[in-house]
Amino acid sequence: MDATARPAMNTKRRLGNWMPQKEAVAADFRLRIAAAAREHTRCAPRANVVRALAELVQGDTVLRMNLSRAIDEARHAGFALGYGNIDELMNIVDYLTTYAPPFNASVPIATPLNLVLDWPMCMPSGYAVFRDPAFNTQLRKVLSHWCGFLSGPHSRTHLTSAEPDGWFCEAAQEKMHLDDYLCERSLAHWGFASWNDFFTRRLREGARPVDEPSNPAIIVNACEAAPYDLREQCQLHDCFWIKAQPYSLREILAGTAPDVAERFVGGSVYQGYLSAFNYHRWHAPVAGTIREAYNVDGTYYSEIEAEGTDARGLNDSQGYTTAVAARAVLVIEADERSLGLVACVFVGMAEVSSCRIVAMQGQHVAKGDELGYFQYGGSTYCLIFQPGVLRALEPRPPYRDNVPPLKVNSRLALAAL
């Protein structure tokens, strides 16, 4: 490999505190997880869903060839994966379906499967694997199986105040502002029934007040998320797979009627990304009636080739993921007629990333009402506005990686009423 390319590949920009910034730390984790997986394999048979995934890959010549080559390409590039073939990778996947992450303030590893797949998925042979429909269908079953574990009592190993990896230790309380959330500290695991119960924890009354709830000109943040991108003059169809990653409305709003999607042509898309340490429920950016609410099946670890093999993980592919990843779409018809329709797209980028909608079609929501939530996994979201709606956006580009998330229900934009 060309020596000049190596430094770029070793400097992935991992946003949102989902994975460690330094590749050496990531490699050490992969090696430790691989060792734990080998021990696990000696003690327990593979889960049926993982066995089915392995059989799919081994039984499909093209999938087997591409995944094998992607692993080889990553290893030949000098990356310590912790596995050297598909079978060893499947052992790690199986181990992770009973894994709940520990807290780590300085070196977070909140999405371990993403870290395990981090390099093969951006190798030349890896793109086709992680975009393959059959592969993603079976991978979704594996992630749902993992979700079942994370939604049960055995996932609460680290829901303690034990130092240094308990999610209620002093460092965690300071990092995550846990006083903002509903919990019962006198109970075991602070009253949380599972890891997912903790991950989707609710805010205390008044912790995130809605900015001017009766003023329709104020549009609020739908998620506790840091700014990622703002695009104007968005098109119905665009080349979302190129390096610039323009937003392609018809692909993003895959289940929306064409005549409704067309109303957003020429409009604006704002996108933000969520941190592992923050609140993961979604709230209505405007008051109105839910006209559409649906989930879209899609990919989980697909990156875009245009970013190259130094793509820096899923983070630099966030515009692309809005069109291809598993996601929830809600379209709100605003009470304020001049706002028209506002589309809210909540994207599961990695791990379980279940997108759970709680505001159903036909339901009226006030500004700040809950729309749904992400279960465990990396996440991004975007709001799509019709032409001429936005007058000014509160966070101004260019956006930096090191800014704190904008509070949910805080002011995002001023509408041109």
Structure description:
This protein has 13 helices and 13 strands. With 417 residues, it is an alpha+beta fold. It folds into three domains: 6-153, no CATH class; 158-199, no CATH class; 218-415. Strand 6 (327-334) and strand 7 form a beta hairpin. The longest helix is centred in the N-terminal third of the chain and has 21 residues, at 23-43. The termini are far apart.
Percent strand equals 15-25%
- Provide the domain count: 3
Number of strands: 13
Mean residue pLDDT: 88
The proportion of residues forming helix, as a percent range, comes to 25-40%
Fill in the keyword field for this structure:
EC 4.1.1.65; Phosphatidylserine decarboxylase proenzyme 2; 417 residues; seven-stranded antiparallel β-sheet; PsiD-like; three-stranded antiparallel β-sheet; alpha+beta; 3 domains; single chain; globular
Which SSEs are present, and which pair or pack?
Elements: H1 6-9, H2 23-43, H3 48-59, H4 61-76, H5 86-96, H6 112-117, H7 126-129, H8 133-150, H9 170-176, H10 195-199, E1 218-220, E2 225-231, H11 249-252, H12 258-261, E3 268-274, E4 281-283, E5 288-296, H13 318-324, E6 327-334, E7 341-348, E8 355-357, E9 364-365, E10 370-374, E11 379-385, E12 390-393, E13 411-415
Keywords: Decarboxylase, Lyase, Pyruvate, Zymogen
EC number: 4.1.1.65
Domain L-tryptophan decarboxylase PsiD-like: 48-176
Quickly describe the structure.
By secondary structure, the protein is of the alpha+beta class. It has 13 helices and 13 strands.
